Amino acid sequence: MSRVLVARLDSAGDVLLASPAVRAVAGDGEREVVMLCGPQGAPAAALLPGVTEILTWAAPWIVDPAPPVTADHLRTLHDLVAGADVDRAVILTSFHQSPLPLAMQLRLAGVEFIAGASVDFAGSLLDVRLKPGEDFPEDQPEAERALTIARAAGYDLPDGDRGLLRVRDTPDVSDLVGIGSYVVVHPGAAVPARAWPAERHRAAVDLLADAGHRVVITGSPSERQLTAYVAGRHGLDLGGRTDLHGLSGILAGAEVLISGNTGPAHLSAAVGTPVVSLFSPVVPPLRWAPYGVPVELLGDQNAPCRGTRARDCPVPGHPCLTAVLPEQVVEAVERLTHRVPSLSSRGEKRNA
After folding, report:
1. What is the pTM for the complete model shown?
2. Closest Cα partner for 347 from 260, 281, 298, 289?
3. Taking the CB of residue 252, how many other CB atoms lie within 10 A of it?
4. Could you tell me which of 211, 212, 215, 259 has the C-alpha nearest to residue 238?
5. Are the C-beta atoms of residues 190 and 262 closer than 8 Å to each other?
6. How far is CA 229 from the centre of its chain?
7. pLDDT tens across 168-225, in order?
8. What 3-state class would DSSP assign to 56?
9. 92 burial class (0-12, 13-18, 19+ CB within 10 angstroms)?
10. DSSP characters for 149-190?
11. Rounded CA separation 299/329 (Å)
């Protein structure tokens, strides 16, 4: 059986968005996919159907803070790839990333065929080079961009696969969430510019409880103080009590997720759960909003921070998200749970 390397070197959300492309490469099981990820993305790769093996390496041109470029660090990548028994690779990147640094390292490790999208001349580094803006539009969802690269390399989705996000083996988490319907609030974000204020989250939890919703609060171990505050007296605080796999089970059982533009929003889409997306326009929503499920997109998408890719808000007061009121979030939840049509809704609920 042939083995193909698929590279996505950044965050967990980016890896989740690559899931249709990964399934295309895997086909109907006739190929094994070796996924090359950064440290943040590796846990998400473990959830993707079609992934056989995961290689983890921190790319100095992507990871923040960046590791130093040393011969030993590059040798680590060389040894990982050379030992993986792959001769073909598909490099998945966003519009602001180049596949060429990785392509050179893969060539040196013996990979014979490499496909990617590059605005720069690739010479002998890429066997298949898509030119962004010429061979495909840049303004499209990230999941579709990745699938376009995979198709150019000669891989397409199996018959009947609709190209939505997907994860495998969502666990039973009833011991954590209990019985009955619930709404999930995920207040944290790895990038501060994408976070709605904690006090707004807490107020929304109170209003949701008043409206009869049971509310579950999720977060990483480092966010326990935040989740405890947001939960207050009315929310079930599960901060730090699950890994990404466990979170997939929590989201799969939820009616709706309330989250910023962060990995759990894409995980929610991968299990078919609608999202109230508190979306900071530092990146374009067309590319990065939750894909393939109903979405209520909140936040001023024309704010001055638009398109800056800023990690910290460059505008005093963080107006793109602070203008969103807790009442608006609750109204968005009601629209999604009652399936009231909304102009910003996309896609449809599906079985995970």
Report:
1. 0.93
2. 289
3. 20
4. 215
5. yes
6. 26
7. 999 999 999 999 999 999 999 988 889 999 999 999 999 999 999 999 999 999 999 9
8. strand
9. buried
10. HHHHTT--PPTT-------S-PPP-HHHH-SS--EEEE---S
11. 10
